[in-house]
Each structure stands twice: as C-alpha cells, then as structure tokens.
C-alpha cells in the first residue's frame, strides 16, 4: 500500500448520488424521536437527510422536560437555506408546535412540486403535549398541500372530531381527512388498545388495512416520526404511494420489535434496524457454512432424513425466509458421507426457515435450525441435549393456508408444551410426511454440538 500511495498521489473521487429529503420538525435530545429519528431513518433508507429545526426539546425515554420553539425567522432561514441549495425530492413535517410555524411551513410547501408527508405531531408517546391547542385548526391549510398525513388515533380524532372506537370509525376519519385536500391519510392504530394493530390507508380510490400482531413492548418512542420518515424516503425514491406505505409499515413493525434498550424508560425504536439486518447477512451466511463444514467433517449422515437435511440461520433481525441463509438444494447422504448439493444462500429454505422464524416469535434469541431424521435411536438419544425435546402429533396438524402456516403451528405447539425453549422438536410423521427432528440453537457452536453429539450416540454412517 505504501508503494501504491507513492505512485498514486491523489485519488479520483467517486461521488454517491442519492435523493435529498427535508425534515421540518423538533429536536429530541434523547435521540429517539424528532429530527434525530428522521435523519437516522432517512439515511437508513438510502437518501440524504436535511433538516429545519422548529423547536428544541429536553426529553428522554421517560418524558419531555421542557420545550422551546425557535423564532420564526430562524425556522424560515433554515428552510430557505436547504431549498436554495439542495434538490429536495420529498418533505416530511413533524413537530410544528405553533400556528405561526405551521403557517410558514405551509408557505414553503405551497411552492414545491414534491411529495409532502405531514405527521401531525400533537402529543409525545409519553403523553407530553407538543402542539399549542390554538394550532390544531391550522393544520388544514398544510394538509391541502400534502401527499399523505399519518395521524395516530388521538390526532385523527382532534383533526376530524370523529371518535375512533372501531374499524369503521377509523375509515370515516380517514375519509374526513381527505376533505382537507390531502391525497391520502394513513390513520395509525398503535394507540388503540387491541391485541392486533390496524393501520388504515385511505385514498380517494381505495381503503387498505394493514393488520399485524402487537409487539408486547412500550418502547415505541419515535415510532410515528420513524414511520413518516421511512415513507417519505421511499417517496423521494419515486416509489408509488401504496408501495411506500407498505414498506414503511413493515419497517416500523421491525423497528419496534427489535427496539433499542436505552435509557431508564421503555427504550427507543431501532431506526437502523434494516441496515443492521443487511449488515448481519454475511456473518450469518458464514456461520451456516461453518456449521455445514463441521457436519461434513463429523459425518452426521445418520441424521440426514430422506427429504434431505438443511441448516438454516437467521440474522438477528430476520422476519421472513429471504432473511435466512440455508443450503440450496439441501444436504444429502452419500456412500462416503454427506454432501451439500450447492452453496449457502439467502432464501434457499422455505420449510425449515418458516419453522425457525416461527420459533423466533417465542424466543428471538434462537438463530439456527437443523432438520434431522427421527427414529427410535434418535428418540433415545435426545436426552443428551441441553434443553427439552418436545414431541408433536402431526396427525392433528391443521390444513396449510396460502402462507404455509403449518410450521407456525408446529412452533406454537412446541413452545406451548416445553418448559422454556426446546432444543429439539420431533414428530412421528403422518401420511405423506416423514418423521422429523428439528434442532434449535441460539448460536453456531450449540447447533454443531447438538448434532455431533446425537450422531456420536447413534453411531456413524
């Protein structure tokens, strides 16, 4: 490298081109919401974030200590500085605090021909008020210039006067918001105390409901800001609104589940979770490859079922089979040992991957799964595992739906019956279904130790 540097005195730049997003919102000293959440999310979404700070708040995961609205001329100067230099492709608004601030922001967006997403921030997740009461009615002028607004249930009630007690009321509130001139309204259901969260997107042509299980956590600080910023960033990439909302809802669901355990309060949503998931893929793939090498060297051929063995590894943030690494074509038994048919890639497994992901719903620390054959010898050997072995009767298994949820049923029944996380889940098969043992492990070392120990007890190939 030293010789190289003596020959090449200067390096040619390789600039990165990406869309610019402007967020106009308040600052959160705790880093979980506001401008800080917006900029993290925008960067995670592959855009360049610029900002205009409307207010400075002293807050943390426990609540808002104080709030100071900046002078209008300072807010005006920030927005003007950004717009006069950058090619802004989308704008997101958050905490605007007062009627004069909303008015100056409205003047700017009136002249812009880019998507504007309005998150009508009124109250923090901790219950602290972030909008002056006399500013509530001024939002209509701003909404008239917006492509989307993202109120939670409480904010939608304030803006429309409609009480959101059921799904139909949510739809009515969304339609009422459209009367302000906004192109679409995403009425969020996170504040509604139900087991499942329902977010409703209302446009002039359609109503779409996003429904998913509620994550059992209070660490939702910054969730509204993060969702709106994620959608705005997608719009800056010229994605259609429906696609941008789809991606944003999925993003925030993961960001809440894998929240950051920071502060003395509940914590913060994980703004960079998508980047962390992608960053973990190489290591996860290497871990699976390492497990497979150990299986080949240790000759675990007696464990290989007729359908073939697979080793599946999930990233720490995996939510779908495409985020799990597995052996493409599975591992087969040969006269000389075992043979991985092809290499390890993401998305190579469906069946075992779905089982692993379903198990992670009960214990997110589970990262690896291996499917093995099952017979009397293996049943006798399961006692050596460091963890319970659970038997299931697949003759009582429900018919698979379009998503192939039988693996969800297997995992649910296993964790229901086990005292803790099972080390193995086995069944004696059914008509057209081979008897199978499924090993679960939190790390590669445990997966290797479990399989090699079983193979040693029952004897080699």
UniProtKB/TrEMBL annotation:
Residue ranges constituting the Pyridoxamine kinase/Phosphomethylpyrimidine kinase domain according to the UniProt record: 28-270
Name of a matching Pfam family: Phos_pyr_kin
Annotated keywords: ATP-binding, Kinase, Nucleotide-binding, Transferase
Keyword Cell membrane recorded: no
Enzyme class per UniProt: transferase
Domain Thiamine-phosphate synthase ThiN, residue spans: 288-451
Molecular function GO labels: ATP binding; hydroxymethylpyrimidine kinase activity; phosphomethylpyrimidine kinase activity
Any one biological process term the GO annotation gives: thiamine biosynthetic process
Enzyme Commission identifier(s): 2.7.4.7
GO CC annotation: cytosol
Keyword field contains Nucleotide-binding: yes
Domain of life: Archaea
PANTHER family assigned: HYDROXYMETHYLPYRIMIDINE_PHOSPHOMETHYLPYRIMIDINE KINASE THI20-RELATED, PHOSPHOMETHYLPYRIMIDINE KINASE
Name of the molecule in the record: Phosphomethylpyrimidine kinase
Organism lineage: Archaea, Methanobacteriati, Methanobacteriota, Stenosarchaea group, Halobacteria
